Amino acid sequence: MSQMKHIDNIPSTPGKFKMEKSPYNRWRLHFSLAKLTFWSFVFLGVIFMFFFRSPSPPSPHSSDLSRRSLRTSSYDDPAWEKRIKASAKVRSRNGMSVLVTGAAGFVGTHVSSALKRRGDGIVGLDNFNDYYDQSLKRARQALLERSGVYIVEGDINDVALLKKLFDTVQFTHVMHLAAQAGVRYAMENPSSYVHSNIAGLVSLLEVCKSANPQPAIVWASSSSVYGLNSKVPFSEKDRTDQPASLYAATKKAGEEIAHTYNHIYGLSLTGLRFFTVYGPWGRPDMAYFFFTRDILKGKSIQIFEGANHGTVARDFTYIDDIVKGCLASLDTAEKSTGSGGKKKGPAQLRVFNLGNTSPVPVSELVNILERLLKVKAKKTIMKLPRNGDVPYTHANISSAQRELGYKPTTDLQTGLKKFVRWYLSYYGNGKKSAQ
Ligand SMILES: O=C(O)[C@H]1O[C@H](OP(=O)(O)OP(=O)(O)OC[C@H]2O[C@@H](n3ccc(=O)[nH]c3=O)[C@H](O)[C@@H]2O)[C@H](O)[C@@H](O)[C@H]1O
């Protein structure tokens, strides 16, 4: 009752209207309060049901989160830390200590294995997502484990995990290869590109800029940033403001984000524009890989052609050449200049094309595969769909040649021969096949 009095004495709108104290008004007030309480309960009930009782199917994100919180508790596990430290142990003089993101990916596996072979310390990080056959990623992981590289299972968006890794090991370098790849898939699942290629990159750079010492970072950009550029061969100085796919746009955004972190925090950053990388242990979503699978299965393949029956061509680049470019980038990367999250001076900022400098038409890629597989392909020629693909790519590599000593040595015929040999030994002669 005293509370009621208090309410009664306060004008609802100061200076405007004072409520009369008649019994009718009191009854109206009681009634309104009862109504208000009733509807508040209904409202809270609905909210409760929506958040806690909703039988909606678990989204990949919610399962990710629960997995992540489970894993967070294992970050304090001494055995886990021991494995990481053992994997990061440098075994050569002047060797580096590298965090490789996307280590169970195609390029990540090859780069990690090459670094380990020469005595660098490596810790891998990979979220093992299901963009393509996860068993292939697990097989790559097993391969790396045999050579002493441990892959931590986690996402680059997991800042707590990244911090824990940097607390455990003083990484001198980060080889950032984790990404949502694929040009055409960007129309199906655009947010996955924003999640990995933009948000994930920012999470990683945030942790790197605060690390002491700050690592030097080498990361995977893409030839797709040239988009609709029609000047060939593509040079790093050419325009890159006309991306043809969301994938390309997120990689281009990555290059701009790299500029910002270099400018504000003194992070040393090198972006590598890879040109259609192929080879053993490759990505099943790429044309050379699923063409091989489909030719062996006797399934029809689609070969795209440009306007007016124009040739669609790619500057296909063999994995071993790309690995050499990655290692040379790490070796020539200057130290970051910041510490404690503050820039101390200008730092290195580089972008390089890593291509093969000799584009090959997709129809020729298929001819080579037919010869190597000794099977005639069932081909359908179709117009290049409007799905983010560009008609051709061709790298000018003079900058990488000059600064990194990069010189690709594997032509498509030789590289595909190695790929096919691996494919047949991994999947068997078409009996067990790629998904
Ligand atoms: O350099 C890059 O930055 C990118 O390279 C790769 O993209 P792309 O060069 O598009 O490779 P990929 O899909 O193998 O298609 C090869 C060719 O086959 C043609 N193609 C494709 C499919 C098909 O059914 N038919 C066909 O003709 C198609 O038109 C194309 O001409 C990576 O996937 C990408 O993640 C990114 O790293």
TrEMBL record:
Reactions catalysed: UDP-alpha-D-glucuronate = UDP-alpha-D-galacturonate
Bilayer topology annotation: Multi-pass membrane protein
Coiled coil region boundaries: none
Keyword Lyase listed: no
Transmembrane segments: 29-52
Residues annotated as domain NAD-dependent epimerase/dehydratase: 98-335
EC number: 5.1.3.6
Main location: Golgi
Keyword Membrane: yes
Record's keyword terms, sorted: Isomerase, Membrane, NAD, Transmembrane, Transmembrane helix
InterPro entries, per the entry: Epimerase_deHydtase, NAD(P)-bd_dom_sf
Pfam short name (any one): Epimerase
Subcellular location: Golgi apparatus, Golgi stack membrane
Single GO molecular function: UDP-glucuronate 4-epimerase activity
Enzyme class label: isomerase
GO CC, one annotated term: Golgi cisterna membrane
Domain of life, per lineage: Eukaryota
UniProt record similarity statement: Belongs to the NAD(P)-dependent epimerase/dehydratase family.
Subunit-level organization: Homodimer.
Protein name per Swiss-Prot or TrEMBL: UDP-glucuronate 4-epimerase
Organism for this UniProt entry: Oldenlandia corymbosa var. corymbosa
